[in-house]
Design brief:
mainly alpha, 0% strand, elongated
Length: 117
């Protein structure tokens, strides 16, 4: 009975909302970056699986007479993965700069020190 609800779309929605919960509740900058990455993975998984049709074959090689899967969502998600990696790298670089300047990974402390300037 429970296995009827476990599919890729439901898992992707769960991942997205777990990431959203992490973004909203975490005070640590690194944990917030990880939560954003979890949200990104959930969104990518959802957008890949929403186009899934049973019986379709990948558009590679000899596909005569078969139902071919649409390659556009996969191509867009590869681009989204590359953008997600870039955003993570920039976020971590900014975090390292903030940590060197303020000596903490806590959002509230950094914001409080920025306001007192």
């Amino acid at each position: 009975m429970f296995s009827a609800y476990v599919n890729a779309q439901n898992v992707s929605l769960l991942l997205f909302f777990v990431g959203l919960l992490g973004v909203v509740t975490q005070k640590n900058i690194v944990k917030t970056i990880v939560a954003v990455n979890i949200m990104d993975v959930g969104a990518i998984l959802f957008l890949i699986t929403v186009n899934y049709r049973p019986g379709n074959v990948p558009p590679v090689g000899d596909v005569s007479g078969a139902l071919v899967a649409d390659p556009l969502p996969q191509a867009l998600m590869i681009t989204a993965i590359a953008i997600g990696i870039s955003v993570t790298a920039v976020s971590l670089a900014i975090f390292i700069s903030l940590f060197r300047r303020y000596g903490t990974a806590d959002w509230e402390t950094v914001i409080r020190r920025l306001k007192t300037r």
